[in-house]
Amino acid sequence: MLFGLSFSALFLLAQAVVTTANPTLGSLQQHKKNLPVYPKRSLSRPTISFAPYHPSKAQIPSPSRNRTCFVQSHNDNVTDDSPYILQAIDDCNCGGHVVFTEGTKYIIGTALNLTYLSHIDLDIQGYIQFTNDTDYWQANSFKQIFQNATTFFQLGGEDVNVYGGGTLDGNGQVWYDLYAQNIYILRPVLFGTIGLKGGSISNLNLIYSPEYYNFVANSSNVVFSDIFITGFSKSNNTAKNTDGWDTYRSDSITIQNSVINNGDDCVSFKPNSTNMLVQNLHCNGSHGISVGSLGQYVGETDIVENVYVYNISMFNASDGARIKVWPGSPAELSGDLQGGGGTGSVKNVTYDTMSVSNVDYAIEITQCYGQSNFTLCNEYPSNLTISDVLFTNFQGTTSTKFEPIVGYLVCSSPNVCSNITATNINIISPQDTNQLTCLDVDDSLLAVNCTTVNKGSN
Question: How does residue 41 score in pLDDT terms, banded at 50, 70 and 90?
Answer without folding.
Answer: low
